[in-house]
Specification:
single chain, five-stranded mixed sheet, about 40% helix
Length: about 110
């Protein structure tokens, strides 16, 4: 089971982004499309095997932490970015941010990392 981490501040975000495989999901509590997608995506992260247990899944609420979204140049929510050791491997935005697409992008990221 992967770890779903709701980011609380800039420092936590910076610390967690730098090491190992990370999926960063930017959402907005005021965005209806994100609110519908969040449940399945969070369930995917917390399921026993779809995402490897050593992958961190970070959630950034763009409404609560606009400075992080701005610094990361996030214009569309939801946005999911796949990083390994701080290097971005791929990105999904808008209606492409689905549980299936996240699982596929995670698999590709893990293959590229090895």
């Amino acid at each position: 089971m992967a770890e779903w981490i709701e980011i609380k501040d800039d420092e936590q975000f910076e610390d967690l982004m730098q090491e190992g495989p990370v999926i960063t999901v930017f959402g907005s509590s005021s965005n209806g499309a994100w609110n519908m997608a969040r449940g399945p995506i969070q369930s995917l992260a917390l399921a026993p095997m779809p995402i490897p247990p050593y992958v961190k899944v970070l959630y950034v609420d763009k409404d609560r932490l606009p400075q992080i979204a701005q610094k990361c140049n996030v214009r569309v929510v939801p946005t999911a970015r796949f990083l390994n050791n701080g290097k971005q491997m791929s990105e999904l935005t808008g209606d492409k941010v689905t549980a299936d697409n996240i699982r596929q992008s995670c698999d590709k990221m893990m293959q590229a990392a090895h």
